[in-house]
Design brief:
- By secondary structure, the protein is mainly alpha-helical.
- It is built from 13 helices and no strands.
- Helix 3 packs antiparallel against helix 8, helix 4 crosses helix 7 and helix 5 (83-97) packs across helix 7 (115-136).
Length: 261
């Protein structure tokens, strides 16, 4: 049991970040499911580094809120290796083609990026930067990026719940699709929600606390909506869909926090 969780942690960090994590001694559906449950922990680490960069940027240049936001967003993209953005682009191109299931799956496997993918990447990055800047201005920058990054990775347990099959017989989806019980995903959500509320509680602002809770719950809702769309269009989930869900949940969480800060 202990070894399986260790392999799950190595798999989670190895697939979701570029951080050195070591090679799992085994990779199967049990390890894959646990790796998805640990995805919010990966979000804490990635968000923590981004939060540190934002705090440092504000210390050096207090009036440069936009610069701090851009640096924070770039750190997240760099630590994830750009893989989630690539997944978003592939999923957007597939859906934008409005073709049959097999054609869409083939489009997602191609290495090039089409116009829908470009618009999707530019759109989410602009929203990330704009919303994060709005959070930084009242002094809620590092908390916002930490909450949003963790909440966006919370989508993975929900995207890999037992009712969601893999869209194809190969790839990452086969190891993680349908591996997380809804109860386990619910427990993970409760933990992330409690952490988000703890970060916002010192402000003694009911609106900010409510915004933190809404950011987490909307991230879960993003996962449910995206997997539903993926099942209808593709027959299930893929690694690209998982990455796309993360990238869709991140700006939504940041935007929610920006509107309630």
């Amino acid at each position: 049991m202990r070894g399986a969780w260790g392999d799950a942690a190595r798999l989670a960090f190895g697939t979701l970040t570029v951080l050195p994590a070591g090679v799992p001694s085994r990779v199967d559906r049990v390890v894959g499911g646990r790796a998805m449950v640990l995805a919010p922990v990966v979000g804490v680490v990635v968000g923590g580094v981004a939060a540190g960069v934002i705090a440092l940027a504000q210390l050096v240049k207090p009036e440069a809120d936009l610069l701090a936001a851009v640096l924070g967003v770039l750190v997240i993209a760099a630590l994830s290796g750009g893989l989630h953005l690539d997944g978003l682009a592939d999923f957007a191109d597939a859906l934008g083609s409005r073709r049959d299931r097999e054609t869409m799956l083939r489009i997602m496997k191609q290495s090039d990026i089409g116009p829908f993918g470009v618009v999707a990447i530019v759109g989410v990055l602009l929203l990330d930067v704009a919303a994060l800047t709005a959070c930084i201005q009242p002094g809620y920058g590092w908390q916002a990026i930490l909450i949003a990054t963790t909440a966006s990775r919370l989508t993975l347990p929900w995207s890999c719940r037992t009712s969601v099959p893999a869209a194809r017989p190969d790839g990452l989806g086969t190891f993680v699709a349908g591996t997380v019980r809804p109860l386990t995903a619910t427990i993970a959500t409760a933990v992330v929600l409690a952490a988000a509320l703890a970060l916002s509680w010192p402000a003694q602002s009911a609106t900010r606390v409510a915004g933190s809770a809404a950011a987490v719950l909307l991230a879960v809702g993003t996962s449910l909506a995206t997997t539903r769309r993926a099942r209808k269009a593709l027959g299930g989930t893929t690694g690209d869909v998982l990455g796309a869900t993360i990238e869709l949940a991140l700006p939504l969480a940041l935007l929610t926090l920006a509107l309630t800060v």
